[in-house]
Specification:
The protein is α/β, with parallel strands linked by helices and 245 residues long. It is built from 11 helices and 10 strands. The structure holds adenosine-5'-triphosphate (ATP). Residues 12, 15, 17, 35, 37-43 line the site of adenosine-5'-triphosphate (ATP).
């Protein structure tokens, strides 16, 4: 197991946002985390990446308890978090944004390794090569999302946390983004993927978890979740709530 959460609870002041969450991600897997607005998906990713400390429970990464480490320490252990709403540096070029993604390993791995990875990232996202000198803030939403994922990859993470990468993007761009995630999976990249687009996420993932009100309500192979009638009803466009394809 690369990542394991055991009975993790997180709070905002008195409000409990995560309730005894246990889940794991094996190396090489894509695991989808689905759930309605406010279920706690972002909170879960923030807790793993150290932005929020769990009040109870433990988080293990590569055999190490990371529950009390700082975000910087967690990044340097190999967890890269691509947050919701991108948070790229709009007044910097695409190239500089990508370099920043490799900031913590620049000294350790050297410039050549970082530039090689930049080439690798440009192969995955050709549009970023074309736009490398452009100010990131002047790109379209879809391009900025590609940049956010690409910047995450520049850290050469052992585990990538992707928070709602498809949020607010046009269907064609969403398809392109999921194509990239599928390609990363072929390369063996381990990913914990948070998505409201449950169908697309489960089609891509090996396994999945359903989060409801801060608790894991269901878990299983992506295939079994796709065929689960409760999941279909609540998250796959069943009659009660329709989620876009
Ligand atoms: P969304 O898809 O809307 O982002 P989510 O599943 O990611 O939803 P979270 O953002 O993790 O859900 O929120 C979980 C719960 O914690 C919600 O009830 C939310 O109102 C609450 N919450 C989130 N951030 C804060 C905060 N900074 N302070 C107080 N409560 C918060």
């Amino acid at each position: 197991m690369l990542l394991e959460l055991r009975g993790v609870s997180s709070y905002y002041g008195q409000i409990q946002a995560l309730k005894e969450v246990s889940l794991h991600v094996n190396a090489g897997e894509i695991v989808a985390l689905i759930g309605a607005n406010g279920a706690g998906k972002t909170t879960l990713l923030n807790t793993i990446s150290g932005l929020l400390q769990p009040r109870e429970g433990t988080i293990w990464f590569a055999g190490r308890n990371i529950s009390r480490l700082s975000p910087a320490q967690i990044v340097s252990l190999g967890i890269s978090h691509v947050p919701e709403h991108r948070q790229i540096f709009g007044t910097m070029t695409v190239y500089d944004n990508l370099l920043l993604g490799a900031y913590h390993r620049y000294r350790r791995d050297g410039k050549q390794a970082v530039l090689r990875d930049m080439e690798w990232v440009f192969e995955i996202f050709p549009v970023l090569r074309e736009r490398r000198e452009q100010l990131a803030g002047t790109m379209s939403g879809g391009e900025q999302q590609m940049l956010a994922v690409a910047r995450g990859l520049m850290a050469r993470p052992r585990l990538m946390l992707l928070d709602e990468p498809s949020l607010g993007l046009a269907p064609l761009i969403v398809r392109e983004l999921f194509r990239v995630v599928a390609e990363l999976r072929e390369e063996g990249q381990t990913i914990l993927l948070v998505e409201q687009n449950a169908r697309a996420a489960l089609r891509l993932a090996d396994r999945g978890y359903v989060l409801e009100n801060g608790r894991i309500a269901l878990e299983g192979t992506a295939e079994s979740l796709l065929h689960n009638s409760d999941v279909q009803m609540a998250y796959l466009g069943g009659r009660r709530t329709a989620v876009s394809p």
